[in-house]
Amino acid sequence: MESWKVSNELWEQVAPLIPKHERNPERTYKRRAGGGRKPAPARNVFEAILYVLRTGIQWKALPQNEFGCSGSAVHRAFQFWQETGFFEALWEKGLQTYDAFSGIKWEWQSVDGSMRKAPMALEGVGANPTDRGKKRKQDAHADGWCRSPAVTRRNRSQPSRCSRT
């Protein structure tokens, strides 16, 4: 079974948490209520969101034939569910279920971390390893000649990187 497929037992717990989209009574709509394309089934949308989160693909790259809805429709539903607090409610429901099943030892929980720069980072770690390929001023060899091209850029008015001493 793929990791984004939702079992019937899980869907029974998730379905009541999914927010329903309601029309704003203060807004004037061009279409009557119920007009336009019908929304995709919530289970398909939920599975598509899990697929995107699990695989890391872009929303537009979602295989439409597998889930029966487009990537943009799934992304719109994801944003709406995020705004309405669906994922927080799902997280709380999961914690409650796990607590009832196995028991969370709340008194032993702790969080440790820091969200600031290390004060002595440069002295402690040395040079940045991502700077290995960058060009630096090269020293002349023992015979005094530079072993790199004399003109390294397209602007030929600039002097060469190393000069003969």
Could you walk me through the main structural features you see in this protein, from its secondary elements to its overall organization?
With 165 residues, this protein is mainly alpha-helical. The chain is built from 6 helices and no strands. It has helices at residues 8-14, 42-55, 64-67, 71-84, 86-101, 121-125. Helix 2 (42-55) packs across helix 4 (71-84). The model has no long low-confidence stretch (mean pLDDT 77).
Layout of strands and helices, then pairs:
Layout: H1 8-14, H2 42-55, H3 64-67, H4 71-84, H5 86-101, H6 121-125
Summed up:
By secondary structure, the protein is an all-alpha fold. It has helices spanning about 10-15, 40-55, 65, 70-85, 85-100, 120-125.
Low-pLDDT runs: none
Q: Give the integer mean of the pLDDT values.
A: 77
The total count of strands amounts to 0
H/E element sequence: HHHHHH
Oligomer: single chain
Q: Give the N-to-C terminal Cα separation.
A: 70 Å
Could you describe the largest sheet, including whether it forms a barrel? Answer: none
Helix content estimate = 25-40%
Rounded radius of gyration (Å): 29 Å
- Helix vs. strand class: mainly alpha
Number of helices: 6
Shape: extended
Percent strand: under 5%
